[in-house]
Write a structure and sequence with these properties.
The chain has helices at 3-18, 26-44, 52-60, 63-75; strands at 85-87, 90-92. It is mainly α. The chain has one domain. Strand 1 and strand 2 form a beta hairpin. The radius of gyration is 15 Å and the shape is globular. The chain starts with a helix and ends in a 17-residue tail after the last strand.
């Protein structure tokens, strides 16, 4: 699966999951998916010998990580850097974003 196909597949899935939200924006969702893909690429620290095709194939194995990171970032719109929230008796706490990178091991240090 190429990066473009990966992105489209994730955007399509998240559109189904998040599309009913009143604040849904397909354009913003695409930006969040692009950002998640870039972050996984940076976290993997691919060796210079890796071709784009090799990177694309490897990224497919992190499909769920990329999807979760994009969803997390999309849902954080308006709550940037918020550590806690309480409103009308409802308390919110957010998962540590770094936990979404579980299993993404860099090739080089």
């Amino acid at each position: 699966m190429t990066r473009t196909e990966l992105k489209k597949s994730i955007v399509d899935e998240l559109t189904v999951e998040l599309g009913g939200e009143p604040t849904f924006s397909a354009d913003i969702l695409e930006i969040k998916v692009d950002g998640a893909i870039r972050e996984v690429i940076r976290a993997r620290r691919y060796l210079p010998s890796y071709s784009d095709a090799m990177i694309d194939a490897d990224l497919t194995g992190f499909y769920q990580n990329i999807k979760n990171i994009a969803m997390y970032d999309f849902n954080q719109i308006g709550a940037e850097f918020q550590s806690s929230s309480s409103e009308n008796g409802e308390n919110r706490q957010y998962t540590d974003r770094n936990k979404l990178f579980y299993g993404i091991i860099p090739f080089a240090r």
